[in-house]
Amino acid sequence: MNAFVKEVQPIPHLKLVNLGKRFGPVVAVKGVELSLQRGEFITLIGPSGSGKSTLFNMIAGLLAPDADGSIVIDGRTQGYGELLGKVSFMPQRDLLLPWRTVLDNAIVALEIEGVKRREARERARALFPEFGLAGFEDKYPHELSGGMRQRVALMRTFLFERDLILLDEPFGALDALTRSMMQLWLLDIWARHKRTVLFITHDIDEAVLLGDKVAVMSTRPGSIKYSETINLPRPRDAALATTSEFGDIKRRLLEVVEEESLKTFDTERL
């Protein structure tokens, strides 16, 4: 190979360029720059109020970004009206409909897309074993544990067949043991489906365990303060958190998050 020929870099699946959002006098997000390659799993952490959920709402097309920023998918800049339906988005709450069975909750997005109910149910039933929900198709949300409800919500997100998935603290409300199990389960699902994932969390251990890269947002106005590629082997398990390599990464990230959190605290005191 010619030593002077540059290696062609792949076009990012998602690229955020100078992305910002102002609500009246309040600048929530400013100058966010972030790229995800296809099939990559990036976790996003930062202090409360740093604009993480606002960022997700812009990527999902629920909020219009300020005019000087852009959202680029597969090399094409997306207008605000073009973004709705381009990504799968799971917010913090599972938002299951209490009057629908688990099966019929799973197919909501497919029905909105115009898929006939019979076909949608067949496609959903095929995923129930993979998501650990076989035998619960005809149950109602109130009959499920918190972890199972989250699995239903995630299955609904995966059934909305988009290559880019936004997950906003999906395990935040779960107890520690259930959360740990769900993390490993999600890694297994992601390894099989290879979707591109952007995942918000307040848990640094979770961010390191799951991510190919961890991005840290600053205090408001939120921007990407720091990012670190996680060069830990896959597949990963809970024992990884006991290694010195994991501990070193966690300490570096914790220093940045604590620095930004102190800024938030100082601002609120003034």
Explain what the structure shows.
Helix 6 links the parallel strand 7 (164-168) and strand 8 (196-200). Helix content is 35%, strand content 21%. It has two domains: 14-87 and 162-269, Rossmann fold (3-Layer(aba) Sandwich); 95-161. The strands form two sheets. It has a six-stranded mixed sheet with strand order 6-7-8-3-9-10, with helices on both faces. Strands 2-1-4-5 form a four-stranded antiparallel sheet, covered by helices on one side. It contains eight helices and ten strands. The chain is globular. With 270 residues, the chain is an alpha/beta fold. The protein has helices at 52-59, 102-106, 108-112, 117-127, 146-159, 176-193, 204-210, 244-269; strands spanning 14-23, 26-36, 41-45, 70-73, 76-78, 88-90, 164-168, 196-200, 213-217, 224-229.
Would you kindly provide a brief summary of this structure?
The protein is α/β, with parallel strands linked by helices and 270 residues long. 35% of the residues lie in helices and 21% in strands. The strands form two sheets. Strands 6-7-8-3-9-10 form a six-stranded mixed β-sheet, with helices on both faces.
List the helices and strands and how they pair.
Blueprint (H helix, E strand, L loop, with lengths): L13 E10 L2 E11 L4 E5 L6 H8 L10 E4 L2 E3 L9 E3 L11 H5 L1 H5 L4 H11 L18 H14 L4 E5 L7 H18 L2 E5 L3 H7 L2 E5 L6 E6 L14 H26 L1
Parallel strand pairs: 3-8, 3-9, 6-7, 7-8
Antiparallel strand pairs: 1-2, 1-4, 4-5, 9-10
Helix pairs in contact: 7-8
